[in-house]
Amino acid sequence: MAGRLPKAPDPEAFWRLLCDGADAITAPPAGRQGVRHGGFLDRVDGFDAAFFGVSPREAAGMDPQQRLMLELAWEALEDARIVPSTLTGSPTGVFVGSMWEDYTSLAYPGHITPHTLTGTSRGVIANRVSHFLGVRGPSMTVDTAQSSALVAVHLAVESLRRGESALALAGGVNLNLTAAREEGAAEFGGLSPDDRCFTFDARANGFVRGEGGAFLVLKPLDRALADGDRVYGVIRGSAVNNDGATRSLTVPSAQAQEQVIRGALARAGVRPADVQYVELHGTGTAVGDPVEAAAVAAAYRDPAGSGDADSALRVGSAKTNVGHLEGAAGIVGLLKAVLSVYHRALPPSLNWETPNPGIPLDALALRVQTTLTPWPRPDAPLLAGVSSFGMGGTNAHVIVEQAPDAAAPPDRRPAPEALPAPWIVTARTRQALRAQVERLREHVRSHPDLTGAEVAHALATTRTRFAHRAVLLDSAQVAAGRAGTPGRTVFVFPGQGAQWVGMGRELYAAYPVFRAAMDE
Q: Does residue 245 share a domain with residue 343?
């Protein structure tokens, strides 16, 4: 997984933000004229174009949403311990949810270049990732309004189940670049004058906007286990539907929302009572919250339940932390749910003080999760539901389960007297190499449980090898250089009688690995 969210540059930081109950809503960064308080990324204009083989002129014409998803695709694959170049030509699918084109309104009617058309096309967000990775699976940008990202996940899962994709990147992106979009949301009546999401609270008066993006790497579970992958969580089932005819286009239907939840549960083969937590769409609107509460309760209520407080279904919304990411909102909720099952804890939902009078929580057997706690039934399989609803009525729901227990990995910790294992770091430039070395040092400092051998193995086998390289033998000793420097190659064999005439030729004939190395 990979994510860039307000005050959270990666999923690990996002989890800390959630557990701390932190509020990431701030004033807009410099250069965002006319934009209100919200959840923002600090540098949407930064991009290492050369790393992705993009010229400076083409990069300038690219929607920052394309640039962000290129970066997150690379980071997600690295987190999955997949060297991106190994996917070239594979049936890897790319599915991205997105609903706005703010950069298009900024680009037109300005200076038009040969890169403007592709740079401002929303459909190219997913295509750009597929092109860079050289993958040939389905590639699509999905727009179902605010449910776009979770619908993209649903489509990715279906593609994997059909065998159309062997691997899939699924996610969403949303950047708030123009004041016009803000004005439209205000005129629609969706924005909170308090610049907060008061999900299920009596103060619910709209949402605050957020931005960012995330990618999940999806793979059939049996293959992931056979390949020894780290599994964060399992998507048991998902479903998508539409509200149909309601009294107006944007008025939600409790019945349709209940149906999409029941559809996801049926596909997952899960009893409603076994789900312990639901990550709500939870925008904090006066109309939407009561409708969603009624639908969740109707779909998940256990007729045989005891009715006590401990049996209540826990609910919450990440929108209270980072704002409403609109087209990417669903992937934020799913990321939170996956992290919750992986870490076996439920973080708090913010801004809940007084129950919404239109949501009788006790009667509905719902409880807003307001503190960091273990799961209500930690000994049972951890199951969570995730909802996302579009303003035009397209609803999506996903059921997530904890990963199955895997066999304990063998103890690879080196003996106390073992020599330090070399840590190999590579990058495209010398500047990036220095930055990578510093990031590695910081990572090791913040993860004292890692052994030197584990770090060395991961660096050597799961990372792309670039031309600029450094080898760390300890925290201070670093040797750096560049691969492919012109010069003659010399092979030296040890003396003291440990060699004989023709030894290299015999090794070449007998050992394929030695032969391949010599040939290279």
A: yes
pLDDT at 209: 97
For position 410, what pLDDT does the model report?
A: 47
β-strand pairing of 92-97 with 167-174 = parallel
- Cα separation of 250 and 290, whole Å? 15
Q: Do 107 and 122 share a structural domain?
A: yes
Query: Which residue has tokens 């691969």?
Result: 483
Give the number of domains in the chain. 3
Residue 83 has phi, psi (to 5 degrees) of: -70, 115
- Cα gap 67→98, rounded to integer Å: 14
Q: What is the pLDDT of residues 126-159, one digit of tens each?
A: 999 999 999 999 999 999 999 999 999 999 999 9
The span from the CA of 227 to the CA of 209, in Å, is 40
Nearest CA among 315, 316, 333 for reference residue 214: 333
- What is the torsional sign of CA 299, 301, 302, 304? negative
* Contact by Cβ (8 Å): 334, 281: no
242-251: list long-range contacts, CB under 8 Å, 24+ apart.
242/392, 242/393, 242/394, 242/395, 243/393, 243/395, 244/393, 246/393, 249/391, 249/392, 249/393, 250/391, 250/392, 250/393, 251/287
DSSP state of 374: -
Alpha carbon distances (Å) from 115 to 119, 348, 380: 6, 44, 53
First and final CA of the chain: distance in angstroms?
Answer: 35
> Which tokens belong to 142?
């999905």
Q: pLDDT tens digits, residue range 385-420? A: 999 999 999 999 999 999 998 544 445 444 544 667
Within-domain flag for 12: yes
Instruction: Work out the number of other CB atoms within 10 angstroms of the CB of residue 407.
Output: 7
- Output the pTM of the full model: 0.90
Q: Give the separation between CA 294 and CA 311, rounded to whole angstroms.
A: 17
* Paired sense of beta strands 92-97 and 139-142, if any: parallel
| Separation between Cα atoms, residue 367 and residue 387, nearest integer Å | 16
Q: Are 334 and 279 in contact (CB under 8 A)?
A: yes
3 state SS for 164-219: CCCEEEEEEEECCCCHHHHHHHHHHCCECCCCCCCCCECCCCCECEECEEEEEEEC
Alpha carbon distance 337, 347 (integer Å): 10
Same domain, 473 and 517: no
Taking the alpha carbons of 248, 254, 255, 261 in that order, is the dihedral positive or negative? positive
Do 24 and 92 lie in one domain? The reply is yes
Which residues of the chain are modeled with pLDDT < 50? 303-307, 407-410, 412-414, 416-417
Range of the domain at 11: 2-401
* Residues 395, 287 share a domain: yes
